[in-house]
Amino acid sequence: MTASDSAPPCRTLEAPLRPEELQLYYDPPGTLRLTARNDHSYPGVKLYQSWPLTHPAQFLSLLNSKGDEIVMVDDLSALTDSSRAVAEEELRRRYLTAKVERVTAVKSEFGVTYWDVETHRGTRDFVLTSISEASQWLSPDHLVITDVSGNRFEFASISEMDPASRALLETVL
Does the predicted model carry a pTM greater than 0.85? Predict the structure, then answer.
């Protein structure tokens, strides 16, 4: 059995791709582009972390501009140094998360929830249209909420928040 006979660390709908065959770069500046095997190029690529959020360097999905998956990268470390650096920057940008330190107000009207919070980045307000769809529990006490604009807000330990914040959270969770 040779190395090429083993299961590839990347999967695609068309043909197996190996991480070293992928080149991620920005062209034009600020726009992610993927070239595979030096003969297939995809402009306007989006990079997503598939799951779980607790393993940020694993199971990364690259989608074309239509939202179709091009390839799944099982582990970020398998990419070349230059592609890994671009992927890390893209993940940092996409998954920028504000850590919520205090909830100052929460109001629900007709299924829409309006939030005012204090984060490590300052005071923020945001809106959720469906709290059940916007919430992802990473543990029984660790919550990440994604607002309507795609911004992420992390509640690292709800039990350690101040009593007023916990009381407000109980009204909507």
Answer: no
